[in-house]
Amino acid sequence: MNIPASDDELLGMLGDLLRRVDPMPEMVREAATASLAWRDPDSALAMLISDSAAEQADKQLTTVRGAAPRLLTFEVGDRAVDLEVTSEARQARVVGQIMPNATATVTIQHGDGTSEVEADALGRFVVNDVASGLVRVCWSNDGSRVCTEWFFA
Amino acid sequence: MIDSGCGGHRTGAPGPLLTSRTVADFEPAAALALAAGGDQQAWDSIVSAYGEMVWGIARGYRLSGPDAADVVQATWLKLVEHVGDIREGDRLGAWLATTTRREALGLLRRSKRDIPVEDAGLTEADDREIDGPEQRAMRNDEDRMLWKAFGRLNGPCQRLLRVLMLDPAPPYVEVAAVLDMPVGSIGPTRARCLSTLRGFLKDTP
């Protein structure tokens, strides 16, 4: 093939190719545009403070996907949630406990929509049919709302 | 982003996905402030200005289309979470790039690929799949050879060239912030990556 002599031309040729054959797909753009609808300015953002999957990967332990549940903890101030996520092919089962322990309506937002569940008096809840992919968990108690960061379940 | 004049080579009209960029009057700080209040148009202008960069960086980690789409979506959702926290508009590009990098490495780590994270992108994989519409966008053998040669570059080279080829080309200071590289090493690395690419093109039958 005819390779351009100058770096600028070669880079230009590459840019021309990549813009044609590997642009951001329209679906990706649409999802990005639609993301703003998830804005929830009245909720506090609970940050991921521990993730067993990351720890295991760091220790180079090999696990089979779906074999052991993944444990995640999100926290903001004195509010937190522990999650145990068991992933299957397209769905995940999420067992959680919010802290401080109290009844609350918990919503789990995911690719297939929103699942709502009541946490018991100890703050525990279970949701079986969470679509695999990006997920977050929100709840309210004492009139204040908390959402976790988005994570992959 | 403005053209630094450093390698901002233009090759004809940009593809249809780039025509909605309103770079000239795009003010990141103002757009962030408006988007934080829920202004969809301002948000769309941010997606238009940085969408290709975020996609390019995710693909530069050699993620498949669906994996790159997940990483990109996670990045935009994180920006929605923090849209009110980023006050300095000129930090937005670097913030997005750092978030994309973190999400890409997180995905590679969770999926427990057999390659160490540092080497992600270093394996040669010239059979990198291209699905339907993209395959049709290949015009000739020259396109296929260049794509194949690009796919053989290591991850850091792919990411650097992906960012440098953006239209408009970001200034080197932004490239440096986005890829977390010293400004002074961008020129030499660019030359080295392009020289490797040339080598691959020459030994392609």
State the secondary-structure class of chain A.
Answer: alpha+beta
The radius of gyration over CA of chain A amounts to 21 Å
Q: What is the second-level CATH architecture of chain A? A: Sandwich
What is the helix content of chain A?
10-25%
Largest sheet of chain A: 10 strands, mixed
Taking the alpha carbons of the first and last residues of chain A, their distance comes to 46 Å
The helix count of chain A comes to 3
Could you explain the architecture of this structure?
The complex is a heterodimer of chains A (153) and B (205). Chain A contains three helices and ten strands. In chain A, strands 1, 2, 3, 4, 5, 6, 7, 8, 9 and 10 form a ten-stranded mixed β-sheet that branches. Chain A is of the alpha+beta class and 153 residues long. In chain B, helix 2 crosses helix 3 (65-82) and helix 6 crosses helix 9 (183-202). Chain B is built from nine helices and no strands. With 205 residues, chain B is mainly α. At the A-B interface, helix 1, helix 2 and helix 3 of A face helix 2, helix 3, helix 4, helix 5 and helix 6 of B.
Question: Any descriptors?
Answer:
heterodimer; A: 153 residues; alpha+beta; Immunoglobulin-like; 10-stranded mixed beta sheet; 20% helix; elongated; B: 205 residues; mainly alpha
Brief overview:
The complex is a heterodimer of chains A (153) and B (205). With 153 residues, chain A is an alpha+beta fold. Chain A contains 3 helices and 10 strands, in the order H-H-E-H-E-E-E-E-E-E-E-E-E.
Task: Map the helices and strands.
The complex is a heterodimer of chains A (153) and B (205).
Chain A: H1 7-21, H2 26-34, E1 43-51, H3 52-58, E2 70-76, E3 79-87, E4 91-99, E5 104-110, E6 113-119, E7 124-131, E8 134-141, E9 144-148, E10 151-152
Parallel strand pairs in A: 1-9
Antiparallel strand pairs in A: 1-2, 2-3, 3-4, 4-7, 5-6, 5-8, 8-9, 8-10
Chain B: H1 28-36, H2 40-60, H3 65-82, H4 92-110, H5 132-137, H6 141-152, H7 155-164, H8 172-179, H9 183-202
Helix pairs in contact in B: 1-2, 2-3, 2-4, 2-7, 3-4, 4-8, 6-9, 7-9
